[in-house]
Amino acid sequence: MIDSSTEHRTPAEGRLRVVVVGAGAMGGEWIRMLARSPHAEAVGVVDLDVPLAASTAASAGLADVEVGSSVAEVAERAGAAAVINVTVPQAHRVVNEQALRAGLPVLCEKPLAPTIAEALRQVALADVTGELLMVSQSRRYFDHLAAFRDAVGALGPLATVNAQFFHADHEPGFREQMAHPLLVDMSIHHFDQLRYLTGDEPVAVRCSSWNPPWSWFAGDAAASAEFELASGARFVYAGSRCTPGLQTSWNADWRVYAERGAAFWDGDDVVRVDADGVGIDVPHGREGIEGSLEEFVTALRAGTTPQNEVRANVLSLAMVEAAIRSSERGGERVVLAELLEESLAQAIADERSDDVAALLTSWDSAADGIATPAWGSAPAPIASGGAR
To answer: Which of these, 25, 284, 19, lies nearest to 171 by C-alpha position?
Structure first.
């Protein structure tokens, strides 16, 4: 279980030394951001294609960083204190385990895992190692979303939350070959934003997904879903990744209807409220992956739990898997609590590490597992220097 007294190799000030794992398109975006970040610096890049790791680092002006194919070895050579995992989703668990077992906290790109079962195994792994595992749900970090959230919170009980996402994006590679490129790769952001926006958790869903005949995706690039929320409200979602006209923001287009009025966010910089006495106050913070990184570094140094700590992210992933299951079963209603328990049984069956398996088996339920005290429930001491 978690040992909140574990000394994390995190200096109290200065830029956190990190290793980026994955030197593809998204890895390059992280590396370029880190090159200018006041919070962290990339001191190592890991990829199975080592020349790609070197060229991606060099293209960001980081010619002197350590490169290689082993997370632990590069981190040791570089004196890194943490890992940023930007590999493809299927590799997330393997990389996270290597890092966490090496005593390195991890900021992992979304989605955490292809299945809830694999996500639950990572929750238990983080508990066993006592290291922080945070998921980078970077689309939570937008100033106008924060303003929209505050406005929604002043509207009273919710009736309906509507979100629409329509885009036409070409991303050659694994995304265009996915079975559910919308639900898995994009809707995870919007589903997670729903949870951030309302604080209302999903209970059940009915979903339909399909692939328009002109689509350049191999799998279903369009979907519609209706989620029942714990409050009794509904979240109505529709989206497509192959719609060439009237495109929405990447953050989707949002409308909330509640007891005291309604609110709208265009996903970018327009927030409107139709309710007496409710104003709009837009904060100014770091957005996107910069916001995610800042929260990760702050949590490590303060010994606190970030909003996207691994167990807090499981229900966002569960929304995706439940929607996919419903779609594959002809729109059948899928109850998330039931899916979580099935996933726990599968996680126990799949796990090969004795310590992780023992912890999974000790949980009374999946809900118990993701509600246990999270990393940083007590302040962790700050080491005086970098990694050794």
So the answer is: 25
DSSP 260-299: TEEEEE-SSS-EEEESTT----------HHHHHHHHHHHH
Question: What is the domain count for the chain?
Answer: 2
3-state helix, strand, coil in the chain (%, to 5): 40, 20, 40
Residue 376 resides in a domain? no
In this prediction, the residues of the chain whose per-residue pLDDT falls under 70 are 1-12, 377-388
Q: Between helices 25-36 and 288-302, what is the axis angle to 10°? A: 60
| Residue 57: per-residue pLDDT | 94
Q: Which two tokens stand for residue 64?
A: 């002197």
Residue 330 covered by a domain: no
Q: What does the DSSP assignment read for 296-322?
A: HHHHHHHT---TTBHHHHHHHHHHHHH
Query: pLDDT value at position 377?
Result: 60
Q: Which residue has the tokens 């060099």?
A: 58
Copy the structure tokens of residue 255. Answer: 């409308």
Domain limits at 99? 16-139+289-309+337-369
What's the pLDDT at 11? 66
CA distance 188 to 92: 16
Q: What is the pLDDT of residue 384?
A: 27
Dig out the tokens for 129 from the structure. 């190692």
Taking each helix axis from N to C end, the angle separating 310-328 and 336-350, rounded to the nearest 10 degrees, works out to 110
CATH code for the domain of 133: 3.40.50.720
Residues 298, 105: Cα–Cα separation, whole Å: 13
**What pLDDT is stored for residue 278 in this prediction?**
96
Nearest to 285 by CA among 149, 190, 162: 149
| Alpha-carbon separation of residue 281 from 65, 102, 105, 144, 147 (angstroms) | 41, 43, 34, 9, 6
Omega of the bond prior to 157 within 30 degrees of 0, cis?
Answer: no
* DSSP H or E run through 170: none
Of 306, 290, 286, the residue nearest 298 (C-alpha)? 306
Within a domain: 296? yes
Predicted local distance difference test score (pLDDT) of residue 1? 38
